[in-house]
Specification:
mainly alpha; single chain
Length: 77
């Protein structure tokens, strides 16, 4: 899937802002690339379900960030 062809410009900008906001809280995640990919996936799923407001996308990103932090903690045990 080519994301730029699937969404309008406004949604793409909102997705990017949501990703940046969600990644702010990553801190020293063991593998930031994988965490960022996980967060982006959560945001993409939200947008594909039709929830394309900045608030909804940001919330989805933050939820995915929490999951990424938990996964990082579990893998570090």
């Amino acid at each position: 899937m080519i994301i730029t062809e699937s969404f309008d410009r406004k949604t793409l900008v909102a997705m990017e802002v949501a990703l940046d906001r969600a990644c702010e809280g990553l801190g020293s995640a063991r593998d930031q690339h994988e965490a960022r990919r996980h967060i982006a996936s959560g945001i993409l799923e939200c947008a594909l379900r039709g929830h394309r407001t900045l608030g909804a996308l940001t919330e989805a990103g933050r939820a995915a960030a929490m999951q990424a932090r938990l996964m990082d903690r579990v893998s570090g045990l």
